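Board work, copied verbatim: Amidase
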Amino acid sequence: MAALVHSLDLGTGPLRVVVKDSIDIAGYPTRAGCQALADAPAATQHAAIVERTLAAGYRIVGKANLHELAFGMSGLNAWTGTPDNPNFPALIPGGSSSGSAAAVAAGLADIGIGTDTGGSIRVPAACCGVYGLKPTFGRLSRRGAMPAYSSLDCVGPLSADLETLIAFMAAVDPTFRVTADDTPPSLGALEVHADPAISGAVAACLEGAGLDSSTRALPQMDEAYAAGMALINRETYIACRAWLNSGRLGADVERRLRAAAQTSDAEIREAEAVRRVFVASVDRLLEEHAVLALPTLPHFPMTRAAAEEGQQDLTVSSLVRPFNLSGHPALSLPLATDHGRPVSLQLVGRRGDDAGVCQAARYLLARSAATPSIKGDAYV
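↓ predict structure ↓
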């Protein structure tokens, strides 16, 4: 199914982990799904998250596939193969952490470790019908992850089970603690542009849990999306430009990199100005509510066939990318399907309160008829 590019057996614990192949594992090359890195030497040191995973007693069973250079949202990869979407086989697996999401959806691993620069954990989690957490920016060390520098990227987990995801976070970050508190979360639903079926499912989830589903405005979402795009373009171009004329890049990534090269200094200055305003706006709203709720995806994922014919859809990240810009923690959790199509809810919390986001998800799962069971066995 192309979810994994290497099978491994590191560690002795019972719970299995796959690690996105943009993250170093000592003794194995980090190729980031890119033919230009086919001859990359083996990493000499584990990435920080790999060290913590092994120290916490988990067993690493593979390196996970991804959208080439972690620079795409479909999850397609002509060189390493595209992971199948186990729960929704006609649809894209989502990117860029496609293999991490597909592996946990297929039961090949209990945890998938991915990276999220513009939705690259939450989008594939939503496409494959699993849970995916983008932690607060900087919470989990990026040492040993590609690219070496990013002002947006976060390392985080995916799982088919919320409690497994929570336990993993607590194991690799001793400051992360979700309490048994049963108090209803102070939650504010955001007014966003999304397919009515998706918006309706989100509202039904909140109402089913006895929470207010009336929406609040968060200005600058569109501007934050554009700013996030400008920054990822500049930072990815700087990190990957050495391979641009190698003749060994996929066509979609080569086009994006060439376009990214045109990102101007003025666009970057404007993006940073938008970042400051948007962070303040999110923080103000989170003074009123501990958690914000909105759809993970604005519309249903495209079919794999359409993607393989060359269609691209970067706007699938329009509701997730703004929170890379702001650095707030965000969790995608699957809801009941709509005519066999995946629907997910995104919860966003105060910076540093990743546990509060997971606590709110636990509360919703326990009370809303709109959500699948924790094991995800409601998928059709």
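The first strand starts at residue 4 and ends at 10.
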